[in-house]
């Protein structure tokens, strides 16, 4: 069947390209430009100096990428471990002080980052957690955990307790009920929260700079001096590298989820060891 493109679809596609494609094209041109002044539309000369420095000239580039990914992965795993029981408690149980617990949990979304990170910094100074990867990981939980909890809460709101009761009647214990009934239903929410957690953690500059005190070098820490130092070519190359790193991290997570759904059937309860 021949697909018909309406003028509205064409206009929307062009607008999408303008908002997403043009900034990347501008960064790519800037990364290979040796002289590009306003209002010249295209650079007058080109050079791969910036890419040679970023990929081969600076030994800190690949180390900072590894550190960024390590911190993002650890933060995401901790977020999942904390968010699942927290969301379960907030959705399914009524207890005194519930509103206060929710207010504290979601406060980092409202409180300005500088205010929050200064309080964290003073606490971590006394605990000896500054200038360490552990300190940066714990600090990254503040802006990422609320989004993970909120995403998992949405999944819990659509999960009927009757499904777990049926699994219990079939003889499934707590672990099997969670693995075969609850987890498949929570997985879309966990994936959404993990995506936000990875992106927010990878893009953190202020928290990493203050808590890490320059000793924990991630890609944003490496990028910002070139933005303020007046070398737009190197800054553009690092920006493209940062965007590629974030996209690859999300694609890797998507591949893991697809692999999970290929090997598991969330719609069918398969309780091992249960005799009918």
The CATH architecture of the largest domain is Orthogonal Bundle
Average pLDDT level: 84
Beta-strand content bin? under 5%
Shape: globular
Family: Belongs to the binding-protein-dependent transport system permease family.
Organism: Planococcus halotolerans
Pfam families: BPD_transp_1 (PF00528)
Protein name: ABC transporter permease
Your description of this structure?
- This is ABC transporter permease.
- InterPro entries: MetI-like, MetI-like_sf.
- It is found in: Cell inner membrane; Cell membrane.
- One of its GO terms (cellular component) is plasma membrane.
- This protein starts with 6 loop residues before the first helix and ends in a 13-residue tail after the last helix.
- It contains 11 helices and no strands.
- It folds into 2 domains: 1-47, no CATH class; 59-263, MetI-like fold (Orthogonal Bundle).
- 75% of the residues lie in helices and 0% in strands.
- The model is unreliable at 266-276 (pLDDT under 50).
- The longest helix has 33 residues, at 60-92.
- The chain has 276 residues and is mainly α.
- The protein is globular.
What's the short version?
The protein has about 280 residues and is mostly helical. It is built from eleven helices and no strands. Helix 3 (about 60-90) runs parallel beside helix 6 and helix 6 (about 135-155) packs across helix 8 (about 175-200).
